[in-house]
Design brief:
mainly alpha, 3 strands, about 10% strand
């Protein structure tokens, strides 16, 4: 399980140890990724391509999208992730609906939550996004 924001040297050896890798991709577009996470995504996308290119690599990857309402859960953003997955041979993209308990984690750490008042989307919203993914993959 990784966001792919790491050095690439050990990734092939680590991937060879498992049968499945969960790879989180929040946003494909570098500008919004940096704006919302504080960091670019070039390394993340490069490591994704590297893992997918390993023998059997794409078959062992499930891309997950941790959905943040209004930030990365629009049909356009989800379609971009699905197209990226398809381009690299990955056939599994899973949406991770927003967790309303996220603010409690920040409180526990004594930090202000940057997205106060954010509410989860209804399941029907994610059903529609899953249809977008299914049309692409």
């Amino acid at each position: 399980e990784t966001s792919g924001c790491c050095g690439s040297a050990a990734l092939p050896d680590i991937a060879a140890l498992g049968d499945l890798s969960y790879y989180d991709i929040k946003l494909v577009d570098a500008g919004p990724h940096k704006r919302h996470t504080g960091a670019g995504n070039a390394v993340i996308l490069e490591n994704f391509a590297l893992l997918c290119a390993l023998p059997g690599g794409a078959d062992k990857i499930t891309v997950r999208v941790p959905c943040i309402p209004g930030i990365n859960d629009g049909a356009d953003q989800i379609a971009a992730v699905a197209r990226l997955a398809r381009e690299h041979g990955v056939k599994s993209v899973e949406l991770m609906p927003y967790n309303a308990a996220a603010d409690a984690k920040y409180a526990w750490l004594g930090r202000p939550y940057p997205l106060p008042g954010l509410e989860p989307r209804p399941q029907a919203y994610y059903d529609d996004l899953n249809a977008v993914i299914a049309d692409i993959i």
